[in-house]
Amino acid sequence: MGAFVAAMKSDRLFAPLLLSVMGLRPAEVCGLRWSDIDLAAATLGIANTRTVMGNRTVVEKDTKSMAGERVLPIPSLVREALKTFRATQAVDRLAAGEGYEGGGYVLVDELGCALNGRQLRARAYKIMDANGLRRVRLYDARASCLTYFANNGVPDHLLAGGPDTRT
Length: 167
Prior knowledge:
single chain, alpha+beta
């Protein structure tokens, strides 16, 4: 996990990639909006998912269950990455002018177009391949995040719920 975090640190999508390994499902990362994130309180709310059906149709919906809707603490590493990414998006918005889509999603390209889980996974695999790392599905990486965060100063009370607090 630590090698992957180090490898992706210079990637534009560092913050969304961190979200995907800290316990969020790829569809949750894709559905996350800036309005779901409270950087001051260091929390984020999961209430929406975005998936692609048949490689063409984007389906946006509520989480699978009421238990899937949850508020999670944001570790400081992720919080700082999100702050940086939000600033990057502001610069992108200015550079693109009227060409910026700006739907409020966190996971967007340089023109503000929302990205999907397939694109997020492709980006992660590209980073893994370029750095000689073993390919790990983002969904499977969720469990590894606890050890990484524990070894990097995240307090136990923030880790207590695990990467997935649903039953």
